């Protein structure tokens, strides 16, 4: 809607209103795009791979952990104080922040810094807002490599 004066010219108010409307429309496009991507569910959050090999697993000393890529998701490989290797998907089951290993404590644990969820070395949530345990991964030593695979695979 353009405002014109008696001579048929566009008024300053009409020009500014048109420019402001155009700018607001162009500025709203990215916001609407982000909202649509947020509201549209993704195909799957499950990892696309079934297993990975870690040839350098000897770098993980006792009572420490290493975050590795498991497909497009982070996984955490833990070398427990007892000498076992355990692996879990490293995303907290509350809101998906990456958990970290806290060794050297009286009771080693996995901790989410975002909202304080704490998991034991079996992946079980022992405190915080996490609604369920961490997703476990199967760990096998095959020759000189550590093979990490989905726990549901036989």
List keywords for this structure.
alpha+beta; four-stranded antiparallel β-sheet
Structural features, described:
With about 150 residues, this protein is α+β, with helices and mostly antiparallel strands. It contains 1 helix and 10 strands, in the order αββββββββββ. It has a 6-stranded antiparallel sheet, with no helix packed on it. Strands 5-6-7-8 form a 4-stranded antiparallel sheet, with no helix packed on it. Strand 6 and strand 7 (about 120) form a beta hairpin. It is elongated and about 90 Å long. The protein starts with 11 loop residues before the first helix and ends with a strand.
Helix-strand layout with pairing:
Layout: H1 12-39, E1 51-54, E2 64-70, E3 73-79, E4 85-89, E5 100-102, E6 109-111, E7 118-119, E8 125-127, E9 136-142, E10 145-150
Antiparallel strand pairs: 1-10, 2-3, 3-4, 4-9, 5-6, 6-7, 7-8, 9-10
Q: What form results from the Cα inertia axes? A: elongated
The averaged pLDDT comes out at 84
Low-confidence stretches: none
Q: Could you describe the largest sheet, including whether it forms a barrel?
A: 6 strands, antiparallel
Helix and strand element order: HEEEEEEEEEE
Strand content: 25-35%
Query: Helical region count?
Result: 1
Structural class: alpha+beta
Arrangement of strands in the largest sheet: 1-10-9-4-3-2
Number of strands: 10
Helix content: 10-25%
Q: Nearest-angstrom radius of gyration?
A: 26 Å
Give the N-terminus to C-terminus distance in angstroms: 68 Å
Short description:
By secondary structure, the protein is an alpha+beta fold. The chain has one helix spanning 12-39, and strands at 51-54, 64-70, 73-79, 85-89, 100-102, 109-111, 118-119, 125-127, 136-142, 145-150.
